[in-house]
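Hello,

I think I submitted the NAP job twice by accident. Can you confirm which output corresponds to this input? Input:
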Amino acid sequence: MIINSKTLVIGLIGHPLGHSLSPLMHNSALDKLGLNCLYLPFDVAPNDLGEAVAGLKALNMRGVNVTIPYKKAVIQYLDELSPEAQACGAVNLIKNDHGYLTGFNTDGRGFMASLREEGISSFKQVLIIGAGGAAHSLVYELTQSGAEQINILDIDHDKALELASFVNQLQKGKGTGAKMDDELFITLSQKADLIVNCTPVGMSPHNEGIPVTSLNKVHSEALVYDLIYNPLTTRFLAMAQERNLKTINGLSMLVHQGALTLEILTGVKPPVAFMKEVLLNSYSK
Ligand code: NAP
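Support: Only one job matched these inputs. Its output is below.
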């Protein structure tokens, strides 16, 4: 592409940034779409967050994705929040409209889009492992999509209870939270039709990690989902596949939440299948 004074700049802010697939995925999509737009990563030191957000306006950047540890901290600098960002209290995307900053949270919508891609749109009984930021976005969307019961387990009992209380604020009586425990997981897993790993357990370079000891009691029609996208097949998913359960890894959600970023910032429908292909090719390199 030719960079000129009309080039729209989009970015990613976080700290430390480490290895991110977002620049590759977004720049490939922007190039394919023929847009005069660039996606750049910025490692922002904690004391500089306010200035970095002010810089978005000063430099007239179109927007930024926001990652760990700024998803909550960034809210104080924004003018408006989308309903899901407001409900979750976390932002992973800022859009800049000539100095007016709106925060979005595309994780939950990306998750639901990845399910729709598989022809699935709703669940009755959901079991969530890990009650952090990603789980918040997911349960927000799952309650909207008609889930009847959302059980949450976390190694931190308080976090599990807090997320269950969030579910119950959205839809009374639908959420339960408890401390992660192997026996309790096995009991709850028997009636679940969706089980999601929302912890980083099993993520590279700690591929040997697995958040549960057994999936033996999970019923044969259940879907087992891992938000982790590196590796593509975690030990958790491998255990589900040994039982011939349907599984989805985090790559599809990553692509769909990225596609939403581009759609919100540029107004153009992104090439989702192409973006996924680009990322899959990057794994084999
Ligand atoms: P987070 O905020 O740190 O939440 C993880 C939660 O899981 C924490 O509450 C943590 O407790 C808990 N936990 C850790 N080990 C556990 C275990 N063995 N059993 C039960 N709970 C446990 O992280 P996040 O931002 O939600 O991200 C979670 C995962 O989702 C990460 O792997 C991330 O890469 C992935 N993710 C993927 C996408 C995607 O597009 N595919 C998007 C967002 C996130 P402690 O805090 O006490 O450790």
